[in-house]
Amino acid sequence: MAIIIYLVTVLMERTTGLGLKSVAEKSRGSFVNGPFGSDLLTSELQETGVPVVYIRDIRNGEYRRVSRVCVSEKKGASLRVCAVQPGDVLIAKVGDPPGISAVYPSGEPPAIVTQDVVRIRLDKTIASPEYVSFFLNSSVGRWKIAEITIEATRARFSLRDFKCLSIDLPSLEEQAIFATRIHVIEALKATHRAALTELDALFASLQHQAFRGELTRSAVSAAAPAKAKAYSFEALGQLDAEIGLEALIFVAKRIPDYDLYKTLKALYFGDKRHLEQHGRQIYGETHCALPMGPVPQAAYDATKVLSGELLISQFADDDLRSSLRYAKKQLIPLRDADFNKLGSAERESLEWAVRYCGPMSFDEVKRASHDTAYHRTAPNAAIALADIVGMLPAEALRHFTEPGAF
Hints:
Structural class: alpha+beta
CATH topology of the largest domain: Adenine-n6-DNA-methyltransferase TaqI, Chain A, domain 2
Mean pLDDT: 84
Strand content: 5-15%
CATH architecture of the largest domain: Alpha-Beta Complex
CATH superfamily of the largest domain: DNA methylase specificity domains
Largest sheet: 4 strands, antiparallel
Number of strands: 16
Shape: globular
Strand order of the largest sheet: 2-11-8-9
Number of domains: 3
Distance between the termini: 33 Å
Oligomer: single chain
Radius of gyration: 25 Å
CATH class of the largest domain: Alpha Beta
Helix content: 40-55%
């Protein structure tokens, strides 16, 4: 959470203030709270059907459904103005304090909100759901919400006042960078939660055996969780920042005219080539679907640090600044890549990418990078590795299907 708060603080230093209502879609029902009591009666609630979202489902900046209340499909359709879909921002209008926010996650079914929950459907050409939610949860966001909070039996704010709340909004590009980092953090948290659940179950099992006098070395070994399979798309996408910096230097040293745009695109093409030839990425980069084509996020952040547009990147700052220099859309290497770190297979894939896109014009590179995986991805979102793999020739898919390939 400290990392997230830091990222929000950095972004808010370069922002434009807008009313919260102005970042919602320009459509009926884009900024609402749930139905009044007479529109949703207790007698209409049931155990199956369309889920109903309560404030207790929004905790610590996350949506985690603990409610078990639903309405019928027919009732849900009649309350469609209060409907929730993945990517919507949810805010608890009542609470201690009110204003806790979360993004309704992908994979969740369509739902409806109750009267005490606000739902915002954002205009995603202006604002990222992840950024808006974390802004509202930040110390600045909470301070602004406190200004409109009414102290009563239960602290709350009015929907009208909330729509006028000022939000500090950086550029959409910076919001996209933030959202990508949030997805990585959330994935790590989910992995840790799953591991803790497994360990809790293991501990309970061992404790039970100990009390019954059945605990032996063989019993402990049998109870231990099996080693996970080495291969998964998530495992492929683990960033190796040290190799990433060397790959960026390698391409920058060889791309014609030190062209920054081509350098970043070559990393994308090189990753596709490496997946095809070897069934793995060069350094576990995440590529995002920005307007000018796929962009390797960690490498892109590093160039933004060099140009003074960002304060931090995932590459070691001293190594980055001593190895590369930014000048007028050029990325100038101050040394060559360290071949002891960047292996021959990785260099071969990157050399292929430089040969492929180096002679192209800007428009040709742009067209070549706007591939199927790019078009399947929402603007500014991370391109799913599965979609990139899905574009590979049929014979290359053996890397991802043969037992023991990883």
